[in-house]
């Protein structure tokens, strides 16, 4: 269960995300989470994700994933993808992510992202504007 501020978007599980059994294929869950993180940065934090990776040369790679698959999602199901911040460090960020259906949490995950300099591929402190936006998000209520 995510505590604190939550960024949520709803979607319908598309055919393209399903295996031959009509169930959301597990790699597609991680793609949905990545799309959600990008939307969170751009829409909720107000910093265009493509600007970070492009002109600003700020990388946000995943370095750790933990996930629990609790129930299946089928093609056509309405689901909510949710994100909350668990911890903000100098150069790392731990996110809580969920996929929920009407029946509750179907996938719960923790993702650790490390801020990097894309020219050196070494960890770097979060840029001041990104850090401030994350702190502001943490202070909001869902």
Description:
A hairpin with a 2-residue loop joins strand 5 and strand 6. The model has no long low-confidence stretch (mean pLDDT 96). Strands 1-4-5-6-3 form a 5-stranded antiparallel sheet. The chain has a 3-stranded antiparallel sheet with strand order 2-7-8, with no helix packed on it. It is built from 3 helices and 8 strands, in the order βααβββββββα. It is an alpha+beta fold and 142 residues long.
What's this entry about, in short?
With 142 residues, the protein is an alpha+beta fold.
Strand order of the largest sheet: 1-4-5-6-3
- Strand residue content: 35-45%
Can you give the mean pLDDT? 96
- Rough outline: globular
Order of helices and strands, N to C?
Answer: EHHEEEEEEEH
- Strand tally: 8
Largest sheet: number of strands, sense, barrel closure: 5 strands, antiparallel
Protein structure class: alpha+beta
The share of residues in helices is: 25-40%
Main attributes of the structure:
142 residues; alpha+beta; 3-stranded antiparallel beta sheet; 8 strands
Write the layout of secondary structure elements.
Blueprint: E1 7-12, H1 26-44, H2 49-53, E2 58-59, E3 62-69, E4 78-88, E5 92-101, E6 104-114, E7 116-117, E8 122-123, H3 128-139
Antiparallel strand pairs: 1-4, 2-7, 3-6, 4-5, 5-6, 7-8
């Amino acid at each position: 269960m995510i505590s604190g501020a939550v960024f949520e978007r709803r979607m319908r599980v598309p055919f393209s995300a399903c295996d031959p059994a009509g169930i959301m294929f597990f790699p597609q869950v991680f793609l949905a989470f990545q799309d959600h993180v990008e939307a969170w940065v751009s829409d909720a934090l107000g910093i265009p994700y493509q600007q970070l990776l492009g002109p600003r040369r700020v990388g946000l790679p995943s370095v750790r994933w933990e996930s629990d698959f609790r129930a299946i999602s089928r093609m056509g199901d309405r689901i909510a993808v949710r994100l909350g911040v668990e911890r903000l460090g100098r150069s790392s960020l731990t996110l809580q992510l969920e996929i929920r259906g009407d029946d509750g949490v179907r996938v719960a995950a923790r993702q650790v992202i490390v801020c990097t300099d894309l020219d050196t591929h070494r960890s770097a402190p979060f840029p001041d504007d990104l850090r401030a936006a994350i702190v502001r998000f943490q202070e909001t209520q869902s």
